[in-house]
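Much of what follows relies on a compact textual record of a protein's fold. Think of the row as the fold of the chain written in a discrete alphabet. An example makes this concrete, so a full record is given next.


***
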Amino acid sequence: MLQKCLTTCAILTLAAALWVLPTATAAVESARFLYLLSDLNGSLPFNTVMMRVDRQHDELYLYEQSIQAVRVFNTTGMEIYHFNTSDYPGRFLGLFPTDQGELLILTNNSGVLTLFTCDERGKPKSSRIIPNATDRAFHPDLFIGQGDRLYLADRARMLVVVCNQEGGEQQLYDIAARLEMTDAQRDDAGLTGFNVTPQGEILFTVATEFRAGRIALDGAMRTFGSKGSTPGKFNIVGGIAADDAGNIYVAETLRCTIIVFDGLGRFLQQISQRGEAPDKLIGPDEITVLNDRIYVSQMRARGVSVFRIAAHPKGNTPPATREGGDT
């Protein structure tokens, strides 16, 4: 979600290496455009959408707010099923396909967070209330699940709560405070991009700060980014995601490209560029990664572009140093 302050161009680059990642890492060697998400009538003219992945079935779930519907796509980018969300009271915050073949769907109904357990096609089976166990006013507008944990983001206030699937064991991350932002800066900024790695680490971008960040499982936070015009930097930062190997993908909305960093934060390449051709991008925003495919939502009803990423193991990776960017 682009904030009102994004009229000022911002550019993101890596200014600090990340902490040690698993030694079996891989670097992205190439990316090839595959297709736009489609149904039997052709490509679908989505604007910015919410995307979640089902790793067990290799499917993509896409929430289209304008029609309040969840659409499911297979590995060829074809829609295979859809269901509406009118059965769920309140605002739809997100869904999570579990390893047990169920869907968890979270809604916010006048401040009451309700987690629905559904079958894989969205039919509710049970529900429970997720309490706010923090000592802060917390109004989440986005939900992501990973493993046995739920990640709830209040993007306007730059707060993230992580809890178990019963709503217990809550951990609060005040990202603005850890970035040493004033209340005014917090109000102007917000989280632009928010995601969770396959390992359960938190990813975020803050466009007004020209920064991206990653919060490790032990709570350590590291930020990186700077304003500039060379490859690997940003004008306006958008969504962020990571693959199984730890490579990081960041949407550069203004320059219409996806910037790729390796697990140590080193710039690798840029995927695509501005243009009207099918393999080009217009205002890339949200991104997600499923196995060897990266999904990119766009503005101007350009739909969701899918690229295949090829990665090759590089063997042992030297430890990252904690120079700069520690918060």
In short: The longest helix spans residues 183-189. The two ends are 24 Å apart (CA to CA). Confidence is low (pLDDT under 50) at residues 1-25, 313-327. DSSP finds two helices and 26 strands in the chain.
